């Protein structure tokens, strides 16, 4: 546990107390999603895994802590479309989540991933995807798959960074604007080559995020 105290960002499974923050992060990241995910139901569902990124406010620079900046305008923790971060004093501060369904053990499916708008481009999305892949490998999965809007360059670039390749299109998959969904998959995640890739990415991420610990 000493190591955990040193981490600025860490990953753990979602718990009930996180639902308000995760729901707000989802609402901001996926404004067109209706109905929103019932994370309370997902907590009960055996096939669901929701991991959250926790940012330790005691270890980020003073100017970035949610405690000190919640009242300041334009802070990285308060810039939020609804004006409500879902965070209250005494809570852990969540900066993102990844939500998977394990309909088969072999091929888990990423249902969604989102980081707070104010916490993007800091490596947190990557940390979440890395964690989901690591957890899936530990559970015996052989591949990981998902759908992404063809216009979502940021997410596609993240997935490609982890070896995910296009496996075709789902025409008019998104009901709000009939946008196509790109199916992306990474196979052979149990292979030594893929585990080496994950190790290599981890060394870089660790430096970038000063994250040294998974809470699994
Ligand atoms: C996609 C998303 C989760 C990325 O999270 P993030 O914390 O900003 O991502 P990271 O900082 O970890 O970036 C990891 C990689 O993603 C890619 N990436 C992230 N944002 C990007 C952007 N704006 N433009 C291009 N590439 C981007 C890059 O490859 C980046 O690697 P790099 O830092 O070496 O350049 C985030 O943008 C988000 O929540 N978007 C809204 C919800 C969404 O679209 N989810 C995906 C649905 S399928």
Task: Characterise this structure.
This protein is of the alpha+beta class and 216 residues long. It has a domain at 2-118: Aminopeptidase (3-Layer(aba) Sandwich). The chain is built from 7 helices and 7 strands; from the N terminus they run H-E-H-H-E-H-E-E-H-E-H-E-E-H. It has helices at 2-6, 19-29, 39-44, 66-69, 124-138, 153-161, 192-209; strands at residues 9-13, 48-55, 93-101, 109-115, 144-149, 165-170, 181-186. A 7-stranded mixed sheet has the order 1-2-3-4-5-7-6. Strand 3 and strand 4 form a beta hairpin. Helix 5 packs antiparallel against helix 7. Coenzyme A (COA) binds next to strand 4, helix 5 and helix 6.
Determine and state the CATH class of the domain at 2-118: Alpha Beta
Mean pLDDT: 86
- How would you describe the shape? globular
List of distinct ligands in this structure: coenzyme A
First CA to last CA: what distance?
Answer: 12 Å
List the strand order in the largest sheet.
1-2-3-4-5-7-6
Total of DSSP H or I helical runs spanning 4+ residues: 7
Q: Helices and strands: which structural class?
A: alpha+beta
Supply Rg.
Answer: 17 Å
Please give the largest β-sheet: 7 strands, mixed
Strand content: 15-25%
Would you give the CATH topology of the domain at 2-118? Aminopeptidase
